[in-house]
Write a structure and sequence with these properties.
Blueprint lengths: L2 H5 L18 H6 L9 E5 L4 E3 H17 L7 E5 L4 H12 L3 E4 L6 H11 L3 E4 L4 H10 L4 E4 L7 H6 L16 E7 L7 E6 H14 L11 E4 L6 H12 L4 E4 L5 H7 L5 E4 L1 H8 L14 E4 L6 H11 L4 E6 L3 E5 L16 E2 L4 E5 L11 E7 L11 H6 L7 E9 L5 E6 L4 E3 L2 E3 L1 H9 L4 E11 L3 E10 L7 H9 L10 E4 L13 H9 L2
Parallel strand pairs: 1-10, 3-4, 3-5, 5-6, 9-10, 9-11, 11-12, 12-13, 23-24
Antiparallel strand pairs: 1-2, 7-8, 13-14, 14-15, 16-17, 17-18, 18-19, 20-21, 22-23
Bound molecules: methylmalonyl-coenzyme A (MCA) and adenosine monophosphate (AMP).
Length: 530
């Protein structure tokens, strides 16, 4: 079974050679690296489906033709909230191919969260699951969306039905470096999510740098095979992993969900794995994880959240591999990386390595100015990978850049004399739980809106599985009593699951400093041990 047999119409395949040499469209760069033997397997799913490179070329052409037939204004957004599938990957690639702007949305987002994204981004097209079509199409049409299609992970839905009528011949849309390719929403310290605008140039330059720095192996060198077990609505799974494989013409072993046993079973066929630290922690809990199980792997990459040194050490002991930890953001894609080749240096646990080629990185002091090695300050970055600003937020964008064009990451770190960066904290009030970002201000806003709540504070506490989890500390209004379990249940019904505090404590008052500011550090210490 393959995708094109599902999509149907026969026709001659597109020819990568037809693309204009100066087309900066990211898709053209990926396509240019597809293997010449297009019948080889490009993606193999954990349910046993095989998609060839030809299938990807044909299917992306058909979906791109469908999108172009809608006659949308330039830079129209295609907002997508669907389960992970190869067809969802095709939709992403086809959106690039048609020169439109891809807007992926976490499947955990519920109606209030989706209403915000749709109203803010004003997508011309929304693609959702059949299950969500009723409520989501209603709110999308109210916001001016012109088309709503469905796409499910069993290869059904109106998107594929319509695409099946379209030609397999398609000329990749010509785009310039600065043209938008994607918008990634990232929550903010004010509680309002911001859409980070990433251009074709941002994404392509980063993919090319990583191809070289992580030493992706062509067929002649043995050919890399990537286990893809990450979600495809954030930077790690969508850009770092997918671009990495495609821009090297490498096969992907496609896991719909992260399941440690299934990932372990795939390792015999793979050479590269990418995951968030929680995935490594869960793999370490598998008795079958040993040197024999990973004998073909050459590279384990971790990022999106700090990996505990203990996890790094345990992984090395069990598998013989030093995990390569790297650091990035939605606004910048990848910024730093531990070395891949021994000739570039050692992989040092607890650090995120050195700035990638082309990335300028400095540690800024409180009053500005660059701090010397060993001192701790705000991490600021500049490079071809740094985004073009926040969607519809010019003032916010301006605030986040320095006068000389460096982006203020909000992360706090220090560079050692050997050039390796260690992230020591964040100046932004952010909790990273299992690789997902949770902004306390957003969650506190939802808690404070619950009747009987006077005020609240969300803090992150250490967690063996997710690294860090949110716990809420809530003060009731005078004369009201609140039930912790009911509060959590209430939040579960409105918020994406990973944002729901794992525990809720009802207290008489929040600790404050002399300025009246809530002392979150006191709360963190108080609830960490519980
Ligand atoms: C699931 N839950 C979570 C999380 N995931 N709670 C907190 N944090 C989470 N990350 C909730 C579930 O809803 C459930 O709640 C309970 O926790 C247990 O879920 P479980 O079944 O164990 O979770 P899972 O479905 O197995 O997911 C765990 C996961 C997943 C596989 C680690 O969180 C994941 O895929 N994380 C990767 C995120 C990612 O790709 N981040 C990259 C962002 P209940 O029992 O109440 O229903 S891109 C980025 O950060 C940048 C740029 C970068 O550098 O990469
Ligand atoms: P996001 O905006 O969702 O892409 O999350 C980006 C944030 O994740 C960064 O600003 C960092 O705080 C954090 N992050 C990413 N990779 C790492 C890492 N390897 N170690 C520590 N924090 C990381």
């Amino acid at each position: 079974m393959n995708l094109t047999s599902h999509l149907g119409t026969p026709g001659s395949a597109c020819n990568p050679g037809l693309d204009e040499a100066d087309n900066a469209n990211l898709f053209a760069a990926l396509l240019a690296q597809f293997p010449t033997d297009t019948q080889r397997c490009a993606v193999q799913t954990d349910t046993g489906l095989h998609y060839s490179w030809q299938d990807l070329m044909d299917a992306t052409a058909m979906v791109a033709n469908l999108l172009e037939s809608l006659d949308l204004p330039p830079s129209s957004r295609v907002a997508v909230q669907v389960e992970k599938s190869v067809e969802a990957l095709v939709l992403y690639l086809a959106t690039l191919r048609a020169g439109l702007v891809y807007l992926p949305l976490n499947t955990a987002y519920q109606s209030a969260e989706m209403a915000y994204f749709v109203a803010d981004a004003q997508p011309a097209v929304v693609v959702c699951t059949a299950r969500n079509f009723g409520w989501l199409s209603k709110l999308a049409f109210q916001s001016g969306t012109r088309y709503v299609f469905t796409l499910d992970d069993d290869r059904t839905g109106s998107l594929l039905e319509r695409a099946a009528q379209c030609s397999r011949q398609h000329q990749v849309a010509v785009r310039k470096d600065e043209d938008l390719a994607a918008i990634i929403y990232t929550s903010g310290t004010t509680g309002r999510s911001k859409g980070a605008m990433l251009s074709h140039g941002n994404l392509r330059s980063n993919a090319l740098v990583l191809k070289d720095y992580w030493d992706w192996r062509s067929d002649a060198q043995g050919g890399d095979v990537l286990i893809h077990a990450l979600p495809i609505f954030h930077v790690h799974g969508l850009f770092v992993a997918i671009h990495g494989a495609l821009i090297n013409g490498s096969k992907m072993l496609w896991c719909a969900k992260f399941d440690p046993k299934s990932v372990l079973a795939q390792m015999a066929q793979a050479t590269v794995f990418m995951g968030v630290p929680t995935m490594y922690v869960r793999l370490l809990a598998e008795a079958g994880l040993n040197r024999a199980a990973v004998r073909n792997l050459r590279l384990f990459v971790s990022g999106s959240a700090p990996m505990l040194l203990d996890t790094f050490v345990q992984w090395q002991e069990r598998t013989g591999h030093a995990v390569l930890e790297r650091y990035g953001m939605s606004e910048t894609v990848m910024l730093t990386s531990n070395p891949c080749r021994l000739s570039d240096g050692e992989r040092l646990g607890g650090t995120v390595g050195k700035p990638l080629p082309g990335v300028q990185l400095r540690i800024a002091g409180e009053g500005g100015g660059t701090l010397p090695p060993g001192e701790i300050g705000g991490i600021e970055v500049k490079g071809p990978n740094v985004f073009r600003g926040y969607w519809n937020m010019p003032d916010k964008t301006a605030q986040e850049f320095t006068a000389d064009g460096f982006f203020k990451t909000g992360d706090v770190g220090t560079i050692a004399a050997n050039g390796y960066l260690t992230i020591v904290g964040r100046s932004k009030d952010l909790i990273i739980s299992g690789g997902y970002n949770v902004y306390p201000a957003e969650i506190e806003g939802y808690i404070n809106a619950i009747e009987g709540v006077a005020e609240s504070a969300l803090v992150g506490v250490p967690d063996a599985d997710f690294g860090e989890v949110g716990v809420a500390v809530v003060v009731p209004k005078p004369g009201t009593s609140l039930d912790s379990a009911a509060l959590v249940a209430r939040l579960k019904s409105t918020l994406a699951n990973f944002k729901v505090p794992k525990r809720c404590y009802v207290v008489d008052e929040l600790p404050r400093n002399a300025m009246g500011k809530v002392q979150k550090n006191v709360l963190r210490d108080r609830y960490a041990a519980r």
